[in-house]
Design brief:
alpha+beta, 5-stranded antiparallel beta sheet, binds guanosine-5'-monophosphate, binds zinc ion
Length: 118
Amino acid sequence: MAGEPQDDCLFCKIVKGEIPATVVRETATTVAFRDINPQAPTHVLVIPRVHYKDAATLAAADPEVTADVLREAGEVAALEKVDGTGYRIVFNTGPGAGQTVFHAHAHVLGGRDLQRLV
Ligand code: 5GP
Ligand code: ZN
């Protein structure tokens, strides 16, 4: 069923506590944890507890949880004190854009000068 945990999904395993992660915030619908291979001083992943393959698919299926993910990205930025200087929220979508884990997630990046991308 759409949104159900997937046995072979790394992030579903983190949600279930089967794989350890450095969790920085949790809500009823989201988990935020540090990326294992950080690309900036602050590099936190915010994921929905429900499984969808990418952010757009999540948004089509569950707009409220999508909003929760974005709100949590802002909360993480404030917690990490990068909200003043600025931070970037990234949703890599599809292999050609560098997506490697097919469970929707927001990267929250900050704490260094992030070159303008677009
Ligand atoms: P994507 O490449 O799909 O946009 O992002 C996946 C992210 O998950 C990568 O930045 C990668 O470093 C991170 N990642 C992969 N495996 C693990 C893990 O086991 N634990 C944590 N905390 N992050 C992971
Ligand atoms: Zn999953």
